[in-house]
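---------- Forwarded message ----------

FYI, see the Phenylalanine--tRNA ligase beta subunit record below. Original note from H. follows.
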Amino acid sequence: MPTVGVKRNLLFEALGRTFTDDEFQRLCFEFGLELDEVTTEKQMISKEQGEDSAQAAGASEEVIYRIDIPANRYDLLCLEGISLGIKIFQGKIQPPVYKRIKPSSDSIQKIHVTPETAKIRPYIVGAVLRNLYFTQDSYNSFIDLQDKLHQNICRKRTLVSIGTHDLDTVQGPFTYDAKPPSEFKFVPLNQTKECDGNGVMELYSAHAQLKQYLHIIKDSPVYPLVLDSNGVILSLPPIINGDHSKITLNTKNVLIECTATDLTKARIVVDTLVCMFSQYCKEPFTVEACEVITADGESITYPDLTYRNEVISADKANAVIGISESPESITKLLNKMCLKSELTSDGSSIKVTIPPTRHDIIHPCDIYEDVAIAFGYNKIVRTLPKTNTIGSQNPINKLSDLLRAPIAQAGFTEALTFSLCSRDDISTKLGLKSVDEVPAVHISNPKTLEFQVCRTTLIPGILKTIAANKKMPLPLKIFEVSDVVIKDPSTEVGARNERRICAVNCNKNAGFEVVHGLLDKIMMLLEVPWNPNKTPKGYYLQACEDSAFFPGRCAKVICDGSEIGKIGVLHPNVLHKFELTNPCSCVEINIEPFV
C-alpha cells in the first residue's frame, strides 16, 4: 500500500472541522483507509537520517498523518483527493462534474510525435490547467502527487513519466522527438550549466533520487525529448524537466505531458492529475484539452475524462456482500463513494456512473466492494457457511510428505533449493550446448545472473548445496522433493509444474548402488514391482545416453511403459563445473504419475 503524508492542520481545514486522532482513525476505517502513524516532519527525518541530522534539526514540528491508501485508488494519493473523497462520503458535498474544454483548432495546444520515439517511448498524452492558483502547500501537494504516481502506477517511471511546465514560458505547437544523446543540449531543472544527454547521465549518476531512473534510457541509441516550436527542450523523460519551463508559485497555466510505454496507464495518470488539481482553476474542475498528432498522422485529443455507466443488480450486491439492503439504500451507499447512482426503470437494478477519477472500477465486483465499504465492514453480520466442507491435503503434497520420511531414514539429508537458477545451470553445466535445448521458462527482466530461468531439473540445486558443504565428512547424501517448471504450450499459461524427487550420493566412489537402492525403496513404498522382463507392468531400467551422465553409466527409469526419470553416475565435466572433486551418482524421477 502507498502511504501518503498530509499535514493535520491542512487536512482538517479542507474537511471543515477538527478531529481527535481516534476519531479520524475511525473515519479512515469507515472510508476504507488506515491511519498508519501520527508523526512530525522532524521525527520522520530523524528515523531516516538519525537524531543528529542537520536537516532534522531544522524540520517542522507540525503534526503529519501518514495514511495507507489502497494501491488501486490513485485518486487518494494527495491531500486534495483524500479531503474531497471524505467530504463526499460524509454527505457534505456532491461529487464534482469534471469538464473537458476543447479550444478551436487554432488555439488548442498541439503535440506532434515523430517516428523516432517508437524506438524508446512511443506514447505521449497531454492536458492544460488554465488560470491556476498555487499556494506553497498546494504546490507541494502537486509535486508530491506526481512522485506518488511515479512510484505506484508508473512503476518507477518505466511505464509513464510525468512532465509539468509553465505554459507561459514556452511556445506551441510542441514536438515529441527522440535524438542521440550527443545531438541536443539543454539546462536541466534547477541547474545553470547546459548539458547534452551524456552530460545529464553523468550529472545525475550520484543523485540520491534520479540515479534510479537513468537505466531506463541510458543504453538506448536515442533519448526522448519534448520541445516547443522554438526548439527549447521542455523535458528529457523519464529523467528530468528543463529549467526553462519550470513551474513556480506564480505559474498560472500548466502544461502536463506524460510520455509512456503503456498508453492506458498514461491516460489514467493524466486524468488523475488534472482531476485532483483542476479544483484550483478559476473555473473549478475544468480542464483544457491537448491534441496529439501521432507519427501516423492520427489526431487524438487528451485527457479522456470520460464517464461510463455500469448496471448492477441489487440482489447480486446483497448476495455477494452478505447484507439485505434495498436498492434505494444501495444507491445512497454508492453515492457516498463518489459513484453517482440511480435506480433503473425496473426498480431492482442500479445504474452506476463511474467518474474519470475511479479508474479502479473495472468490474461489477469493484462496485460491490464500494457498497461494502460504505455499508461498513463491522456492520456485516457474521454467518456460518450454508454448506460444510472438509478440507484435505493436496494429493501430490500428501504423497511428497509421505515419501520424505523414508528417504531421510535411508540416510539422506533433505535440501530446499531455489526454484530459479541461471541459464548455464540447466544447460552448459549439464553438458548441453545452449539453453535453447532446454524447454525452460525465462524471466523477462532478471535482476541477477543467478536467477534467469525456472529450473527444469533439481540436479543443479543439489550439486550447489554439496559444493557449499564440501568441508563436511563424506559421504554427502542429499535429496530434494520439489517442483520443476516445464514449458508446455498445451496449458493455459504455457508452462506447468512437475513434482520430482532427486537424490545425489557424493563419496570417494560414485556409489551407484546407493541411489539404485533408494530408487528400489521408493518404488516398494509406491507398490510398484520390479519387472526384469521389461513388460509394461512394473518398473525397470533401460540404458540411455545423457550429457549430464558418464557414458555407459546412465539409464532411464521406465514405469508402466513410460519414462519417469533417470539414474546414473554424473559426468566428471559436470562435477568440475559445479566445483566438485568427488564422484557422484544421482537419481531423479517424476512422482506425479503415482498420485
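H. also flagged this: The longest helix spans residues 136-151.
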